[in-house]
Design a protein that fits this description.
Elements lengths: L1 H24 L3 H13 L3 H15 L5 H14 L3 H14 L6 H13 L10 H16 L6 H28 L3 H14 L6 H17 L3 H21 L6 H16 L4
């Protein structure tokens, strides 16, 4: 019995492959579409894609086109070809705005772009693009069943931008470019007021101001020491029991000592 079942499976697979090969060369677009649909339904998305590519120009504007282009986009999505999936889903939304699949397609298109977003340490151009696509979806379909998921993805992507901006600012501090660090930390805190890195950002801003002050020429030292003093107060105002308290207090003692030189 097992041998018979195995033989039937082999026969079915052979016939399927045979149908597929014939469909690739077949000029009959209706027959090609039928096989493409079978490939799609069977989860053979790469084979379906090759047939959809051949059919797309012929079917554009026809009644079956909506189904074809939906399956085409889904096939790219299922095979993790996210750039092409995003493009096809966007084209579907544009071409079939009244389709019952339009919200799903709009969401999956934006989601596909989010899958292209790299780790925070790399260039974040694709992350910004994905956020724009997701915001467009949220604006266009505020009551969609996909809104909660879209908002969660936005949160994750914003987290990448946030981490990138923080590490960039900290990087200036690490290489002792304290002027750039102060600007970068100011921008970071302004752009991400609710960031979980705020305590760290405030400390390294203080450290940058402190290092810049104590290494200044006498003509600029007093002004910069006072800037460091303000940075210290901002850190403690944000979190009085900061994990950096001991180090910050030691630095502050030096600031106060150096400032006394300018009051005599």
């Amino acid at each position: 019995m097992k041998k018979i079942v195995s033989l039937l499976i082999v026969v079915v697979l052979f016939c399927s492959c045979s149908d597929y090969q014939k469909a690739l060369k077949n000029e009959d677009v209706a027959a090609k579409f039928e096989v493409a649909t079978k490939m799609y339904d069977a989860g053979k998305y790469n084979k379906a894609i090759r047939l959809f590519e051949q059919l797309s120009a012929s079917y554009r504007g026809k009644p079956q086109a909506e189904k074809l282009f939906y399956m085409f986009a889904q096939s790219y999505y299922k095979t993790k070809q996210y750039y092409l999936a995003g493009y096809q889903f966007e084209s579907f939304v544009s071409g079939y705005p009244r389709s019952e699949k339009v919200q799903e397609a709009a969401f999956l298109g934006a989601y596909s772009y989010s899958k292209l977003a790299p780790v925070y340490s790399l260039d974040q151009t694709d992350t910004v693009k994905a956020l724009e696509k997701l915001q467009t979806f949220i604006d266009n379909y505020p009551n969609s069943e996909y809104i909660a998921q879209a908002n969660e993805i936005v949160k994750v992507l914003n987290g990448k931008l946030e981490k990138k901006a923080y590490e960039n600012a900290k990087g200036y501090n690490t290489i002792s470019d304290y002027k750039s660090a102060l600007i970068a930390f100011d921008n970071f805190i302004a752009d991400f007021p609710g960031t979980p890195f705020k305590e760290d950002a405030l400390f390294y801003k203080y450290d940058s101001a402190y290092q810049l002050a104590i290494n200044s020429i006498p003509a600029k030292m007093e002004e910069r020491l006072n800037i460091a003093k303000v940075a210290y107060n901002n850190l403690l105002k944000f979190k009085a029991d900061t994990k950096y308290k001991k180090q910050a207090d030691e630095m502050y003692a030096r600031v106060e000592t150096d400032l006394q030189k300018f009051t005599k």
